[in-house]
Specification:
This protein has 13 helices and 18 strands. Helix 2 packs antiparallel against helix 3 and helix 11 runs parallel beside helix 12. Helix content is 38%, strand content 25%. It is elongated. The protein has 392 residues and is an alpha+beta fold. Strands 7, 8, 9, 10, 11 and 12 form a 6-stranded antiparallel beta sheet that branches. The structure holds guanosine-5'-diphosphate (GDP) and manganese (II) ion. The site of manganese (II) ion has 3 residues, from loops.
């Protein structure tokens, strides 16, 4: 689960990580109000920041520094409600519904800090780089040595000596080392206690008057740990998520939208991956990943079907089921009901195996609907690709 920058900074502040003073605003009036208060309290300027879950907002025009109240108002008007396009939003962009108004900081250096789960070592890794402010993926690709890493033993946690090593690698001044160590320790503690899989501060800045701040912050939480963080769950903003994915999550369906035109309905994540592969092997492109799970019931199947079909790109539906706990007749019944209800216009291709497969086939045949059946996964994928091409 991702959260907004202003929410992430609230969490950082609780762990003693220095963030600039600021507040979230939902309207231009609120934004002006916050800016007025910050300026009255001595801020030399304010920064107006679009709150969307994607990064790269600066480059996309979603982060603007205002020298005075009039400018703050001008930028708030411009950014609030805009369709902000960044390299992480896709070409359609994301609508800005909130702003973070913060005091500006006199930036001296822009650095990078990140804590992320490293699956290869099964440890959290703390990364630091002098190449802050830019896309870290680019730094990692072009100049991997510019990223310093400390792997964290889960039994002992992040050690002060590791923080010192990173602080020295950042080329900080002697007077900045102790506060940097404190800030990094706070960041790691925040990560560990909230079950975050990623916390990234880019840029982490030093100021001309020698202070340190987290100027930006991105957090991803591990969804599997959310059951023990009811308070964090409240921070979810479904407006930032794909509407079909939100709909799917209501019915405990694992759905991820993709760019192709063959919808997939599969039980089991491994089979879902194999199905996407075989569609591409047959020359097609999957429109989604959908794992209905091992024990899906008829209602879930119906909902899954509705979700698949509400994607306008879909030209064929490929249902690939190995009936184990989910029995093939249950699935077939669900598909028939859903196909009737949604008045489906695109071809439906099925490949069915497993428990009660004969009953399942009979239900499909007796339904009077026109299903295409593939004997093997490969046959079915080829039929699906052909069907998608001709129904275009
Ligand atoms: P991102 O582009 O989505 O990662 O958004 P950031 O919060 O990282 O902002 C992008 C860039 O805007 C930063 O790298 C800074 O260069 C600049 N920026 C953000 N806040 C301030 C600020 O308070 N003062 C100044 N001068 N620049 C800022
Ligand atoms: Mn950033």
């Amino acid at each position: 689960m991702k959260i907004h920058e202003y929410q992430a900074k609230d969490i950082l502040a609780k762990y003693g990580v220095a963030v600039p003073r600021g507040e979230v605003a939902n309207t231009v009036e609120e934004a002006v109000d916050v800016a007025r208060r910050l300026l009255a309290a001595g801020a030399s300027g304010v920064v107006v920041k679009a709150q969307i879950h994607a990064g790269g907002r600066g480059k996309g025009g979603g982060v603007k520094v205002a020298k005075n109240l009039a400018e703050a108002e001008e930028y708030a008007k411009k950014i609030l409600g805009m369709q902000l396009i960044t390299h992480q939003t896709g070409p359609q962009g994301q609508k800005v519904q909130r702003l973070l108004i913060e005091e500006t900081a006199p930036i001296d250096r822009e650095l990078y800090l990140g804590v992320v789960l490293d699956r290869a070592t099964a440890k959290m890794v703390f990364m630091a780089s002098q190449a802050g402010g830019m896309e870290i993926e680019e730094v990692a690709a072009k100049d991997p040595k510019a990223i310093h890493k400390e792997f964290i033993d889960p039994a002992v946690g992040f050690q002060p000596y590791q923080a010192r090593k990173l602080a020295f690698a950042l080329g900080l001044k002697p007077t900045q080392i102790a506060p940097a160590v404190q800030l990094m320790s706070g960041l790691f503690k925040a990560c560990a206690e909230t079950d975050a899989s990623l916390m990234e501060i880019n840029p982490f800045i030093t100021t001309k008057d020698d202070r340190l701040f987290a100027l930006d912050c991105k957090i991803n939480f591990d969804d599997n740990a959310m059951f023990r963080h009811k308070d964090l769950k409240e921070l979810r903003d479904v407006a930032e998520e794909d509407p079909l994915e939100v709909e799917a999550s209501k019915y405990a369906l694992n759905y991820i939208k993709l760019d192709g035109n063959i919808a997939c309905m599969v039980n089991g994540a491994g089979l879902a991956m194999a199905t996407m592969d075989i569609i591409q092997y047959a020359g097609g492109m999957p429109a989604n990943f959908l794992d209905v799970g091992g024990g899906a019931n008829q209602q879930q199947i119906e909902h899954a079907f509705e979700i698949l079909l509400s994607d306008k790109n879909v030209k064929a539906v490929f249902i690939n089921i190995f009936g184990g706990i989910l029995r093939v007749d249950t699935l077939a019944q669900g598909v028939v009901e859903a196909a009737k209800k949604t008045n489906v216009q695109v071809p439906i291709i099925l490949r069915l195996e497993g428990t009660n497969v004969e009953q399942g086939r009979k239900i499909l045949k007796d339904s009077g609907l026109n299903f295409l059946i593939g004997e093997t996964m490969k046959d079915a994928a080829e039929i699906a690709v052909k069907a998608a091409k001709s129904s275009q």
